[in-house]
Every structure is written in C-alpha cells, then in structure tokens.
Amino acid sequence: MLRLSGVGVSDGRAAGPVVRVAEPLPEPPASPAVTDPSAEAARISPAAETVANGLFARAAGVEGDAKAVLETTAAMAMDPSLSSRAEQLVNQRGLPAPRAVLEAANEFAESLRATGGYLAERVRDVHDVRDRIIAELLGVRPPGVPTLLEPSVLLARDLAPADTADLDPDLVLALVTEEGGPTSHTAILARSLGIPAVVAVRGLLAETSAVAAEVDGDGGTVSLSEEPVEVRSPERIDTTGWTGDGGTSDGERVKILANVGAAADTTAAVSAGAEGVGLFRTEFCYLAAQDEPDVATQRAAYAEVLEPFAGKPVVVRTLDAGADKPLGFLDTGAEPNPALGVRGLRVAFDRPDVLDRQLEAIAAAAEDSGAEVSVMAPMVATPEEAAWFTERARTAGITRAGVMVEIPAAALIASELLEAVDFVSVGTNDLAQYVFAADRQLGALAGLNDPWQPALLRLIAMIGRAGAETGKPVGVCGEAAADPLLGRVLVGLGVRSLSMVATAVPAVGSALAGVSLRACERAARDALAAPDVATAKAAARAAFE
Ligand code: PEP
Ligand code: MG
C-alpha cells in the first residue's frame, strides 16, 4: 500500500476498486495538410452536434443541477462561433479538423482567461467541449468518467461539472483528485453525495499500477493498493428525516438556506427543502455583461430568482465585482493585487450611483415577488462602511440590511459592525484566504484554506460572541456551511443560519437535527482548542460520540 496525503474535503471512509477519469487526448497534429479542405471543414458541425446531442440525452435522464450543467455544456458545444472559427482554420490553413477545433477552442478559452475570475473558470468547460468534439472527429473514447460498472473510487486530475453531473451516486465510493481545493467542484459534489473526498493529492496520477484504494476523507489520506481490497461503502447521513425546518434536536432554531447565483439554481434550492436563500450572488447574473443593465432589466432578473421564495427569507448580495469576478461595466483598471484591490463594496464608494440603481431594482423585485428580502454588502472592512451601506439600503426602501464578514478586520470589530447593521454573514471562502494570506483558487495552498483551521474557527467564535452580545443574527454562507460536521460546530460557535450549495441542504439539515445545542457547543469548544485541522475534526467528532 502506498499512502498519499492531500486535503480531506468531505468526511467518511471508503474503499474499493479504482477507476481513473480519462486524461485529455494528446494534441492532434497540424500536419499533413488536408487535400480537400471543404470536405474536412464540413465534418466539424456534425461532430459538434453529435457531442451536444449526447450531452442533451444525458441531461434528459437527470434533474436539477445535473441537468443544468449538462445543458450548459451542450449549448457550448453547439455554439456556432466555435464551429465556424474551426471551419475557417481548415479552409485557410488546410488544418485537419481535430487540430482546427483545438486551435479555435484554445483561442476562445484564452479570451475567457484574459477576462479573468469566474469567466476564467469556464475555461475548463471550453476544454471539456473541445476534447469531446476532437474525440468524436477521431472516433475515440472521449475523456472523462467512464461508465461505472461496480462501486468504485474515482481518481482524477480534477473533476469538471460535466464529468460528474450524471454520476450514479450508488456507484461512487469516494473521490480523489490531484488538484482542486476546499471550494472546488469536487469538494462540493462529494459533500452533496455524502461520500468521502480528498483533493490536492500530489503524485496521485503518477501511480498508474494501483487497482484499489482506501480513502480517509477525515484524515485527508488515500492508500493505493496493487491488490484488490475489501469494498467498504461510506456511511451516508440519513436525510430521509429532513423536514425543511432547521434546528437542533432540542429546538434551537437554525435556518438552513441555499446559495444561488441565477434562476436555474432556485429549482434545486426549492427541491432540496431550503428554507430560503442565504446568499444570492447577483454578480453571477452579469459576468458577461459589458454595459450596466438598467433598473428594469435588473428588476426582472432578480424577481425571477426571488419568485419561488415568496414569503420566505432571501438575502440578496449587492454586486461583488472585482478580483476573481470582474464585471465589464465596473472595470477598476489593472491592479497589482486584485484580491486586495477595489472589489466588492469598495467599487460602490467610487460608483454609488451603480449601487443605488441596484438597490432600487432589488426593492422593486422584492415587491414583485413577495419574498422577504434583505440586502447584504460584500467585502466590508469597517463599521463606517457598514453604516454607509445600511443607510443607502434604507433610503432605497429596504428595511433589513447586513454585511458579509470576509475580511479579518471585520471579524475583529464584529460588535461595532453589528451595531451598524441588522445581521452579518460570514464568507468563510474569502475570510480563510485573507486570514492565511493564501489564494483560495490555488490547489497548492488548499490546506491553508481548509475551513477547519482553528485560526479561522477562532475568528468565527469572536463573531458568534458579538452576535450573542448585540442580539443580532450571525450566519455563514461560505463553503464551510456545506460540511455537516462543521455546520454543527458553527452552530456551537453561535451561528444561527447556514447557507450552502443546494445539494448539501438535506445532509446539513439532518446532521444538525440529530444533535443538541449543548453538544454543538461542546464540539465547538474542543475544536477551538485544537492546534490543527486533524485534531479539530477529531475533537468535534468525538464530542458527538
Ligand atoms: C465567501 O467568500 O465565503 C462567499 C460566500 O463569497 P464568494 O464565494 O462569492 O466570494
Ligand atoms: Mg467572498
């Protein structure tokens, strides 16, 4: 057995045969030049269509998030600009069709990468579509997850949403990836399936002779074996008892909410039994917009997301532009350190008119939809900033205003911050990156961005105490809230709403319903006292035994 370490991002233990997710195809050659360019070019659109049809057919067999992911990828394969650019390359340079698709898709990916941030993350989807079309043109097996025939441990470089959208959860024992971090798609997926996952496992792909693996999601290790091992299925949290009313077994109320970015996410949130929305990332509606949408356009877009939650709480976050999510119409210019630059609410200090128009649209959409809307500002550093935002929200007619705690300074001054607002919500993704000075998107620093880091937990404890002192609610809407065990610890630290990717709602809600507030507080106390991630997790687990 060869034992490798990584970052455990979803708890539990499992063992079984390994299945490797196929690596991308080798680069198709640019020569020899084709003899009949127009016949060669004519192969491209049908190949793209076959790929799209295959993805649409898979989409037809699933629901919710999986359907949306597959349909989005299929639509990308059908994008006529990709096919026509590839055809042009065949006609102009005599390139073989697979090579032309490679070059056209790479140009497209490069322009997304140059845009940066979340659009840059879509580069992976473009590469996925590119490789599927090339495989179709070459008549070979496409990269990605092969059809699973028995319960297996999946080993991959990283997993794209389209790779995993229609995975049969009963056939996946665990996920292990060489890349990725605590907020990666792999982590989110594993938690939603309730299976163990370890990411950022260096050296994983170099081990080609293993046939089986034992995965420890708690300890963040994977043991690879050249002999078969006894199959061990992970113990899944029983979610059948999830009623949609969040709280502990002894009746302490904790709202279990969903994070959404667009209308498509609301279906998944409603069907998962979320009590409302704890984070509506409005910037996701406008990642590709070059001009600011007018108030009427924004109103319609927000109302579409809010309508399914009539009568329920929804926290609408104002535009979190900048750094990893640049918006074309709020360009803050080149910055040496964008994550430390003019982003989030800071953009609004220069452009209060944009914030005011957005608040006007949110207030109108709230009325249109009947949802109980609050607004929340991202990237707030000081109580003055929080007060400035609250004042503008109230002027726009929105009575409930809060801020995110994502900057360590805001956590350190939480009591005064809470005086200026109605609530706070902790963005653990950014708070971790700023506490540890570790880019949240870098797999190599994934261990520092682990939300179980006691230093992060101690900051959250300060915020929880400030909430209790001021009598104002503290929530968590970063990825930490999607971990069922950590969710219990957060409640023990004083958090009274947990907002997460919709698929995690039943597991987190059920896990909390099975324990008392007293037990959560004990687990929190023990995790806080731990010197490191592994000890913190073990201490929390022991507190519930
Ligand atoms: C966070 O930082 O934890 C958060 C929820 O905001 P985002 O992930 O959108 O930056
Ligand atoms: Mg954030």
TrEMBL record:
Q: Which UniProt keywords apply?
A: Cytoplasm, Kinase, Magnesium, Metal-binding, Phosphotransferase system, Sugar transport, Transferase, Transport
Catalytic positions are H185, C477
Q: Does the keyword Kinase apply?
A: yes
Cofactor dependence is on: Mg(2+)
Domain named Phosphotransferase system enzyme I N-terminal: which ranges? 6-122
| Residues annotated for phosphoenolpyruvate binding in this entry | R281, R317, N429, D430, R440
Positions that bind Mg(2+): E406, D430
Record-annotated PEP-utilising enzyme C-terminal domain positions: 248-514
Asked if S-adenosyl-L-methionine is a keyword of the record, the answer is: no
* A GO term for molecular function: phosphoenolpyruvate-protein phosphotransferase activity
- Residue limits of the PEP-utilising enzyme mobile domain? 150-219
Q: What is its main location?
A: cytoplasm
Name the catalysed reactions: L-histidyl-[protein] + phosphoenolpyruvate = N(pros)-phospho-L-histidyl-[protein] + pyruvate
Q: Which domain of life is it from?
A: Bacteria
Q: Where's it found, cell-wise?
A: Cytoplasm
Renumbered to this chain, region (Disordered) spans 217-250
Q: Please provide, in alphabetical order, the Gene Ontology terms of the cellular component aspect for this entry.
A: cytoplasm
Q: Mind telling me which InterPro entries this protein's record contains?
A: PEP-util_enz_mobile_dom, PEP-utilizing_PTS_enzyme, PEP_util_AS, PEP_util_C, PEP_util_CS, Phosphohistidine_dom_sf, PTS_EI, PTS_EI-like
Reported EC number(s) for this entry are 2.7.3.9
**One annotated GO biological process:** phosphoenolpyruvate-dependent sugar phosphotransferase system
Compositionally biased residues, Basic and acidic residues: 229-238
Briefly, what is this protein's role?
General (non sugar-specific) component of the phosphoenolpyruvate-dependent sugar phosphotransferase system (sugar PTS). This major carbohydrate active-transport system catalyzes the phosphorylation of incoming sugar substrates concomitantly with their translocation across the cell membrane. Enzyme I transfers the phosphoryl group from phosphoenolpyruvate (PEP) to the phosphoryl carrier protein (HPr).
> PANTHER family this protein is in?
PHOSPHOENOLPYRUVATE-PROTEIN PHOSPHOTRANSFERASE
The record's similarity note reads:
Belongs to the PEP-utilizing enzyme family.
Put simply, this protein is called: Phosphoenolpyruvate-protein phosphotransferase
- Its source organism is Actinopolyspora xinjiangensis
